[in-house]
């Protein structure tokens, strides 16, 4: 996908303020049984196709509205991902502005997850 220059500039600015991790980092945390909120911020239709096993869906369009209900503890560890790591970087930046202190964006997003052949799930409600 070809992203617009303005969007890429916005993402690069956000990435200077947030922390990122790799798909391998996230899989290792899951394998160790670490407790964290694993959140897919893609659009509904993207999540329904498939998503990282164990991930919860809170789309970018509603996460700021709903995050405090889903994750009331602002120190709780949160890992966000999207398609390629751009939207999740923007969401991580927004959540930090809301006071969340332990937020990571998964660089490479679901593409990196799929490329590594990590477990996927499909939405069971379809």
Question: How would you characterize this protein structure?
Answer:
There is one protein chain. The protein has 126 residues and is of the alpha/beta class. The protein has one domain: Rhodanese-like domain (Oxidized Rhodanese, domain 1, 3-Layer(aba) Sandwich), CATH 3.40.250.10. Helices cover 43% and strands 17% of the residues. The strands form two sheets. A five-stranded parallel β-sheet has the order 1-6-5-2-4. Strands 3-7 form a two-stranded antiparallel sheet. Helix 5 links the parallel strand 5 and strand 6. The longest helix is centred in the last third of the chain and has 12 residues.
What labels would you give this structure?
Oxidized Rhodanese, domain 1, 5-stranded parallel sheet, two-stranded antiparallel sheet, 126 residues, single chain, 6 helices, alpha/beta
Total helical elements: 6
The CATH first-level class comes to Alpha Beta
Poorly predicted runs are none
Order of helices and strands: HEHEHEEHEHEHE
Describe, in short, the structure shown.
The protein is of the alpha/beta class. The chain has six helices and seven strands. The strands form two sheets. The chain has a five-stranded parallel β-sheet. Strands 3-7 form a two-stranded antiparallel sheet.
